[in-house]
Each structure stands twice: as structure tokens, then as C-alpha cells.
Write a structure and sequence with these properties.
The protein is of the alpha/beta class. 38% of the residues lie in helices and 17% in strands. A hairpin with a 7-residue loop joins strand 22 and strand 23. Helix 15 runs parallel beside helix 16. The longest helix has 25 residues. It comes from Solea senegalensis (Senegalese sole).
């Protein structure tokens, strides 16, 4: 049996939506094979969204979760308006009808009792058990009316289609159903489909799903799968009350969410109980999903009830984000990023327990490999450079970063040897030792942070630098490099693992080569302890925005200032300003704003500054006050908070050193700021009052660099106020733990009636024995 009720709205609206231009639709594909990777889901044109009972039903199982339903409708309408063809398979009629019938029964009982017993002598009223078919009959019209009202807010038409098993098993009825749905989609109407629960027979045992042409419609999971295959849908999104498919029942200690599920993995799954409502369960969902996958439709099972994700779960899935469990027929050859992280953490703990000499040996061996295998490295780098030049997408500055040379490799090797020396005094170093009481000693010692994720763009020299710092600090490391340097990164990673192998910790450094999006990696908050982005300010901002549960070490902007005081030396000003701006304009420590004391205006020094900048072809933007002093001024700056990253800078005028400090605090990024002056008192006040990661006196801003600071190398420059700040080297990749050594002590020993007293004596700090070194 099939009932159809079209929610057409106004006739004018129908005429406007009869034919949708094909140019607005996403790229289609030939149906017959499902998408192989999540990233391809953005090309899905025809999408079925299945809403489970737990998604649309309230917690009391009587009535609908209107808030969740409204957010889902909004997402479906948005995708429909993008040119996709959306269909909804919905539950909820029974719950809606149950709410309605309960209300009617209570009202009827209260009236009868009032007539027989009086208004003040009502007896306790018990509700009879409500039959599901009756509830469905009473709730179907109300459920559809609710969908109509919600979709109308987005100028989207809906149509109700009720089906049973016969509509699929009878060829004529199946053709009629297919024809109806095709016509509705052609007219830009969202079909809302449900089993006709008012007449459907009781659920059958799990004897269906035996093949592509055999599937019983016994719940909305099987209905959605059958419908998706019948309509040749590109994607089926099944929303439930769990995050996705787990390898064991959710809530058990070792349960892990499966990111990608392959048909051959069925035997490794242990299913739990059904959800609180509905007649299906996860096992039914998986069987239906695999049936749809076999029929050429991609499937994602995800949580549609979580308040933090419901408002964007459907759109996130269509955008290819790592949400729920993605069903794929193609299993990648390599490990998943989750598996890589687990292997790296395990091997990293072994790395942290090595003797410092062993970690230094690994780094020195890597330094040797960089020079011994330079031909292989440079050959791989030439491939990357040729591909980048032919593509023509990279700007000159990024091509420079991508390029390696024998000189660069030698410099890298020197830097690594410096890190190897520093590794001798890193993990397990005692920072504080206290005798709490007799035979009770407390130590604070350095330990690795854990698992680091370093995301870097087209800069392959970053890989050995960061790897060496991770090895020296005993941290496991995940590396995600830019695709522009894929060949170079692969060779450098092989050399890194070769060096690690000499002490059995080859897997401590992993290179992520899968199709993982950066945003997906940033969601692994239960596996990654710190993210370090190395790249453009936009990359850092994107990662800081995406990594909601993982700390990010870095800076989003490098708005560095140079303040020229009234007592500045002419020679020093010209040298420092030129180097700060012109040495490497794209660097994060390059000068972006030049602050000039007002007494310097219209002096020979001011003229020399302007002439030097013009000779260096630096484009000048005038600040508001600077513009007011000039008859013909340069173009006024759009903002005083701009990182130009090129041969451009802003010039502004201030009245004093204190005004310069206020300006920097207001418009700077707390990165690196400089004062040029011969007045020592003024300089010391500037150094003390300015709250930036790096503050210099009579020195170029370009000195804000880990190598120049003697750190050997840096993983980045941090403007944060917690943990590490400024150029971050080896020390910034360590944290601490407390170790207490006692002799059967309890807190009762120190109570009022106890026999011991606190001493809290500070003891000399030294290195613990090698056998006492701990990992985290």
C-alpha cells in the first residue's frame, strides 16, 4: 500500500521549482560503485537521510525532539538548495501518536471520573498499553504536518510517501514508487518516506538481507537501504543515538569507534543491545549498510542526538569530515592514522626510557644520513620542485622554502648535532628536590609531553629538525606535510626511521600519508597531546579553530614593531630597520610596523629612513597620525593590525616610549618588538613594560629564531602565555611530573597525634641515576 500527500504550498512556488537547472547540482557520478574515500562525499548528488527513532523521539519516548528535528531540517534544506536531491526516511509516527493518544485517554478518563465521582474525588488513572499500529495511525498526519511547517521556513516543498514490503516486492508497485520519487525529485521536492506502521505486519526474525535483490522492509534501516539502492542514491546517512560503529558495545572500557568499516571486518565486531526506542539495533544498521554498499551506495552511520554536533552533523558528513563510521569497499594498504598514533605512542615510551646517550646517537646518525644520502634527497626534491613549477600554484617565497640544496642539508646536519648535545640533559632532569620528612623525598623531573602532531606546509627541512627535537625530548611524533613536498618528505622520513632503528624505536616518528584532512587530525583529542603548526598564519588560524580539545603551540600572526626613539643612533636605525624588514619579508619575525618618535619627523634621520625603504622598494602605508603630518602622504593603512608578509610596512608616529608600548599592546600580536635608543633608562622601561614573547634593544627583530638563540632548531614561535613562549626548542617539548620516594609513610604519620613532622628542606638538584629515568 502506498499513500502520497504532496505538501505543495502555493501554486506559484510549485511552478518556480518544477525544473531545477542542472548547473547548480554537484558533480554526479555513474552509479554502481560507492565512493572510496570520505573526501569524495562532497560530490554526492542524491542523498538519503535516515532518522532513527532515538533521533526524532524525546527521552521520555512520548513525543518528538523538536530542537533536534529543526536543526536536521535546516541542514537538509540547505543541501537541497545547493542543488542536491534529498530524501528523508523518518521514524517518529508511533511516538507522536503515543503522545496524542495518551492525552486523549487521560482527558477522557478525567471527564468520566468527574461525572461519576465529582471533581474532587478523582481516582488514580492508569494508562492502558497502547498498540503501536494505533499510535502510528494517530501520529502520521501530525508528524507530516510538523515536517511541512519546518521545511516551509526554508521555502522547501515536501511530500509524504508511506510504503510497505509489497511496494518493493511487487514489480509494478516498485516501478510506481520509483516513478513517483523521481518526479518529486525533479520538481525539487523533498520526499519524506516512512513504513506504513498502521498496517505493517509484526517484525520478522533476522532472516532477510540475503542478497542484493532480497531485503525485507522490517524497520527503517532496511527501508532506507532498499530505497537508497532502488533510487541509485550516492549516499545514505543513517543517524542514530551512538557516534557510529564500535568494535565492541559502546560504554565498555575498550570500545573504540571505527572510522572506516570494510565488509571483511564483520567478524571483528561485537554488537550490544538495541537503542531505547525503535525495533532495529546496530547489527541491523550494519547489515542494511553493507547491503546498500553492495548496491553501489556509500553509507555513513553517525550520531544525530549529540547537542554539540546535531546542528551540523549532516553537512559535515557531506563535506567529507571525519564524522561517524564510513563504510567503504576499498581498504587502504597502509595503517589508519589512529593505528599510526597508537604505534607511535608505544614506541615513544620506549624512546623516552632510553639513556640520553642513545637518543643523542640516533640524532647524530640522522645528521650523518642527511649528508651521506644527499643525492637521493636532492633527487626527490627535484621531482617536487618540477611538479610545483609546472603546476604554477606556489608563490616564489614557497618555492624557496620547498627547495633543498647541499648547503641547506649541511646546515641541517649542523643543527641536528647541536640538538644531540642538548639531548644529554633533557628527559629525567631534576628541577626540584625536597626532603618532605625523614626518609620521604620529593622530586620534580622533566618528562616528554607524549604524542606531538606537527603540520607543516611546503618546507621539507622542517621534517628532520622537528624529528630530532622529538627524539631528544622523548616524544612520539606524527608528521603531516604538504603534498607539494611529498617525495622529499618520504625520503627524509625513511632516513629518520632508519636512524631510530639503531635502538629499536623505528615507529616513534610517523608520516601521515593517508587522505586525512587537517581538521580531522585535529579531532583526535584522545590520542594527540600537542599540535604544532608550521606554516602560514592562515594555516595556524585554521588549526587553532579546529583543535578544540588539543593545545596548539604557535602564533597566528607576526605583527612585529620597531620603535625608533628620539635618542636613537642614526647608523643603528638604518641597519636594524633594513634587516628587520628586508632580510626576509615573509618571515613571521619581520617588521610590519615602524613607530617613529614625533621629534624625529622632519629631521635628516627621518629622510634617511624613508630613502632607505624606497631604495629597498618597500611600499609604505601611513598610519592616521603620520598622514596628518604630511601634505602628500602615502596611501593610508587599512588597518594598524596588518601582517604584510612582503616588502610593505606601516609607519606611524608616537609621542613617547610609553605611547609606543600602548600602541604595540593594542595593535601587536605579542610576537617580537624592538626599541632603538641610546637611552638605557628608556630601553629598560620598554623591555620591562612590553608584554611580548621577544623584546629586543638595539637588535633586529630577525633574531627571534631558535637557531640564533642557540636552541639548535625550533618547532615554532609561540605567543601563548602558558607552557612555552617565544622560539620553542627542546625545552618547550617537555613537561614535568612529581616523584615521591618514601618508606611506608601515610598522611596519618603527620597528623596531630602522629610521630612525624614536615621538614620541607630544599636539597641540591642533580641528575638521577640512568635507571631512575622515567617516561610519562
Amino acid at each position: 500500500m502506498m499513500l502520497q500527500r504532496l505538501a505543495f504550498g502555493s501554486r506559484r512556488h510549485v511552478r518556480d521549482l518544477l525544473i531545477r537547472p542542472l548547473t547548480q547540482a554537484p558533480h554526479g557520478r555513474v552509479h554502481g560503485s560507492s565512493f572510496a574515500h570520505r573526501g569524495e562525499l562532497r560530490h554526492a548528488k542524491r542523498i538519503v537521510v535516515k532518522l532513527g527513532s532515538a533521533v526524532v523521539t524525546r527521552g521520555d519516548e512520548c513525543g518528538l525532539a523538536l530542537g533536534r528535528l529543526a536543526s536536521i531540517v535546516e541542514q537538509v534544506a540547505m543541501l537541497q538548495n545547493q542543488g542536491r536531491e534529498m530524501m528523508i526516511v523518518t521514524s517518529g509516527a508511533v511516538a507522536f501518536g503515543k503522545q496524542r493518544l495518551r492525552h486523549e485517554i487521560l482527558l477522557s478518563q478525567s471527564v468520566r471520573q468527574a461525572l461519576h465521582s465529582g471533581h474532587n474525588q478523582l481516582k488514580d488513572m492508569s494508562l492502558p498499553v497502547l498498540e503501536a499500529r494505533a499510535c502510528a495511525a494517530a501520529g502520521q498526519s501530525g508528524l507530516m504536518a510538523l515536517y511541512e511547517a519546518m521545511f516551509t521556513q526554508y521555502s522547501t516543498c515536501t511530500a509524504q510517501v508511506l510504503v510497505t514490503n509489497l511496494d518493493f516486492h511487487d514489480d509494478q508497485k516498485r516501478q510506481n514508487l520509483n516513478s513517483t520519487l523521481q518526479e518529486l525529485l525533479r520538481m525539487n521536492i523533498v520526499p519524506i518516506i516512512n513504513t506504513n506502521d498502521a498496517v505493517v505486519p509484526p517484525p520478522e526474525p533476522n532472516s532477510d538481507l540475503q542478497g542484493v535483490n532480497v531485503i525485507s522492509i522490517k524497520d527503517n534501516d532496511s527501508l532506507a537501504a532498499r530505497l537508497a539502492v532502488e533510487m541509485k542514491a550516492d549516499l545514505l546517512i543513517a543517524l542514530s543515538d551512538v557516534e557510529g560503529l564500535y568494535d565492541s558495545p559502546p560504554g565498555t572500557d575498550d570500545a573504540k569507534l571505527i572510522d572506516i568499516f570494510y565488509p571483511g571486518d564483520q567478524q571483528s565486531i561485537t554488537y550490544g543491545t538495541k537503542s531505547r526506542v525503535g525495533i532495529g539495533g546496530m547489527e541491523a544498521k550494519v547489515k542494511a549498510a553493507l547491503w546498500a554498499l553492495q548496491g553501489g551506495t556509500s553509507v555513513v552511520i553517525a550520531n544525530g542526538t549529540h547537542p554539540k554536533v546535531t546542528g551540523h552533523v549532516i553537512t559535515d558528513i557531506v563535506e567529507g569530515k571525519k564524522v561517524g563510521t564510513f563504510f567503504s569497499e576499498i581498504k587502504p594498504a597502509g595503517p589508519t592514522v589512529e593505528q599510526q598514533t597508537e604505534v607511535a605512542r608505544s614506541s615513544g615510551r620506549t624512546l623516552a626510557s632510553l639513556h640520553p646517550d642513545q637518543r643523542s646517537e640516533i640524532i647524530c646518525h640522522l645528521a650523518e644520513l642527511l649528508t651521506e644520502r644527499k643525492e637521493a634527497i636532492l633527487a626527490a626534491n627535484k621531482k617536487d620542485m618540477d611538479l610545483a613549477v609546472n603546476a604554477g600554484h606556489l608563490p616564489p617565497a614557497m618555492l624557496t622554502r620547498l627547495s633543498l640544496s647541499p648547503v641547506k642539508l649541511n646546515s641541517l646536519a649542523i643543527g641536528l648535532r647541536q640538538i644531540a648535545v642538548a639531548a644529554q640533559d633533557s628527559v629525567g632532569r631534576v628541577l626540584r628536590r625536597t626532603r618532605v620528612a625523614h626518609t620521604l623525598e620529593l622530586e620534580q623531573i622533566t618528562v616528554p609531553i607524549g604524542v606531538l602532531l606537527v603540520i607543516f606546509e611546503a618546507r621539507p627541512d622542517c621534517l628532520p629538525q622537528v624529528s630530532a627535537l622529538a627524539i631528544a625530548s622523548g616524544n612520539a611524533l606524527l608528521l603531516k606535510g604538504g603534498k607539494e613536498a611529498a617525495n622529499t618528505n618520504s625520503v627524509l622520513h625513511q632516513l629518520t626511521q632508519e636512524a631510530l632503528s639503531m635502538h629499536g624505536v623505528r615507529e616513534a616518528v610517523q608520516l601521515v600519508n593517508t587522505r586525512e584532512e587537517v581538521e580531522d587530525l585535529c579531532r583526535l583529542d584522545n590520542m594527540i597531546d600537542l599540535i604544532i603548526p608550521r606554516g602560514s598564519s592562515q594555516l595556524v588560524k585554521d588549526i587553532q579553530r579546529a583543535a578544540k580539545g588539543i593545545p596548539v603551540l604557535g602564533h597566528s600572526e607576526g605583527i612585529c614593531h620597531v620603535y625608533v626613539d628620539a635618542d636613537a643612533s642614526v647608523d643603528k636605525v638604518i641597519k636594524i630597520v633594513r634587516d628587520s624588514k628586508c632580510d626576509y619579508p615573509a618571515a613571521c619575525n619581520a617588521m610590519e610596523t615602524l613607530l617613529i618618535h614625533r621629534d624625529i619627523l622632519r629631521t635628516p634621520l627621518f629622510d634617511q629612513i624613508i630613502d632607505m625603504l624606497r631604495n629597498e622598494r618597500v611600499k609604505i602605508h601611513a598610519g592616521p597620525r603620520f598622514s596628518s603630518y604630511l601634505t602628500f602622504s602615502p596611501l593610508e593603512a587599512n588597518s594598524l593590525r596588518t601582517e604584510y608578509g612582503d616588502l610593505e610596512c606601516c609607519i606611524e608616529v608616537v609621542d613617547s616610549m610609553h605611547d609606543a608600548v600602548d600602541h604595540i599592546h593594542k595593535y601587536g600580536s605579542s610576537h617580537t618588538d624592538v626599541i632603538i635608543t641610546e637611552n638605557e633608562e628608556t630601553a629598560e622601561q620598554f623591555l620591562q613594560q612590553l608584554d611580548s614573547a621577544c623584546v629586543f634593544w638595539n637588535a633586529s627583530s630577525r633574531f627571534a629564531d631558535g637557531y640564533r638563540f642557540g636552541l639548535g632548531a625550533e618547532v615554532g614561535i609561540s605567543t601563548a602565555r602558558i607552557h612555552a613562549r617565544g622560539p620553542v626548542g627542546l625545552e618547550g617539548l617537555l613537561t614535568t611530573k612529581w616523584v615521591l620516594r618514601g618508606d611506608g609513610h601515610t598522611t596519618a604519620d603527620f597528623s596531630e597525634h602522629g610521630t612525624m613532622k614536615y621538614l620541607h628542606e630544599n636539597l641540591p638538584v642533580g641528575q638521577p641515576l640512568a635507571g631512575q629515568r622515567d617516561s610519562n
